[in-house]
């Protein structure tokens, strides 16, 4: 059974994100790929990329040629 409560106060807390809380990403030699503070390759969202992900991005044009052959 679900109880419904009317006029219930809801407290919402907003957090300010300070610039130092957001890691800075440094551009790498691959377009769309960056370095994080640990010098790992990451995407624009900060997700760490594996070596196979890097190869797929770096040699994307080569893979597309193989697909159409």
Give a quick rundown of the structure.
The chain is of the alpha+beta class and 69 residues long. It has 2 helices and 3 strands; from the N terminus they run βββαα.
Describe the structure.
- The protein is an alpha+beta fold.
- The chain is about 25% helix and about 10% strand.
- The chain has helices spanning about 50-60, 60-65; strands spanning about 25, 35, 40.
- A three-stranded antiparallel β-sheet has the order 1-2-3, with no helix packed on it.
- The longest helix is centred in the last third of the chain and has 8 residues, at about 50-60.
- The model has no long low-confidence stretch (mean pLDDT about 80).
Mean pLDDT: 78
Enumerate how many helices there are, as a single number: 2
Q: What share of residues is helical?
A: 10-25%
What is the SS-derived class? alpha+beta
